[in-house]
Design brief:
Elements lengths: L1 H39 L7 H18 L3 H12 L5 H16 L8 E5 L7 E8 L10 E7 L6 E7 L3 E3 L4 H9 L11
Helix pairs in contact: 1-2
């Protein structure tokens, strides 16, 4: 019976991540396959909806790089920033996306922070601001600590002497944090 349970658990460890990944991909494809026909009252073959969305996003990115479209978008964006509540949602989501994939990436400096005492505890985070022009805060840096298995996190201000730089990429550090330390590598290269 112990051997049966052992093999069953190993089978679960094999199939559950595959199933979850496949289900999420299927869900995304089927969601776009339902949205596009509903918007335009057309019938599509399965999988075409996601291809239309990829083409639309790529085309809009190409249009944004044109000199004529960028000022018009900036003009409209200025009005969005003036609408209460909408401006908070829009600006926050824009900042998060640009911090991850934009030109001004903010999660490229992973650090280990000593929270108290000589022996720790320690926490992995990302420096998001390394200097302040506020009196009494010159020695502080802003460190973002993402939560494991979540999209949330905390920003904590710590003195620079509590920061230890990590010799890993931001993606490796994020993978380590998001997986609760179960995947990823903190070894120096």
């Amino acid at each position: 019976m112990k051997v049966f349970v052992k093999y069953f658990i190993q089978g679960l460890l094999l199939w559950i991540p595959i199933f979850i990944t496949g289900y999420i991909i299927f869900f995304i494809f089927s969601m776009f396959d339902r949205i596009i026909p509903a918007l335009f009252n057309i019938e599509l073959s399965p999988g075409i909806g996601i291809l239309i969305v990829i083409a639309f996003v790529t085309l809009s990115g190409a249009l944004m790089s044109l000199l004529l479209v960028k000022p018009a978008f900036s003009f409209l964006e200025n009005y969005v920033y003036k609408i209460p509540f909408i401006n908070i949602i829009y600006s926050s989501s824009k900042d998060v996306v640009s911090a991850i994939v934009g030109e001004k990436k903010r999660f490229e400096h992973p650090v280990l922070v000593k929270l108290s005492g000589d022996n720790g505890p320690f926490r992995i985070g990302f420096i998001t601001r390394d200097e302040f022009n506020v009196k009494g805060m010159e020695e502080l840096v802003a460190v973002y600590f993402p939560h494991s298995y979540n999209i949330s996190g905390n920003v904590i201000f710590v003195t620079k002497d509590k920061i230890l730089s990590l010799n890993i990429t931001g993606a490796e550090a994020m993978k380590f944090i998001v997986s609760a330390g179960m995947t990823g590598n903190l070894d120096e290269k």
